[in-house]
Amino acid sequence: MKGRVLRDFALDDIKKIADTFHNWQQGKNYQDEAGFCFSAKLDDMEKHDFVLTPGRYVAAVESEDDGILIKEKIDTFTALLEEQFNEGRLLEDKINKSLKELKYEV
Fold this sequence. Notes:
The protein is mainly α. The chain folds into two domains: 11-56, no CATH class; 65-106. The protein is 51% helix and 0% strand. The chain is elongated and about 70 Å long.
């Protein structure tokens, strides 16, 4: 992914999309796949006022539960973020010191 909504497709991705489309088009070996594809019927689309936003049709992929409580994850990420903020401040101080030595101030 290049971003939240922009993705560069690898050759394998392109092949999967093309194969899925051709299977759907020919009516053989096609299956809906959560997070990837869904063959909507006209009545499905009518229920959504013919809005074709993929999220209305293609179900989200369920993520696996890793057994770690959300509170533990947040605590871990918060501690890591605090460390990174501290490291960022140290680096900022070093950069400012180097710039001052070069007679530049920010």
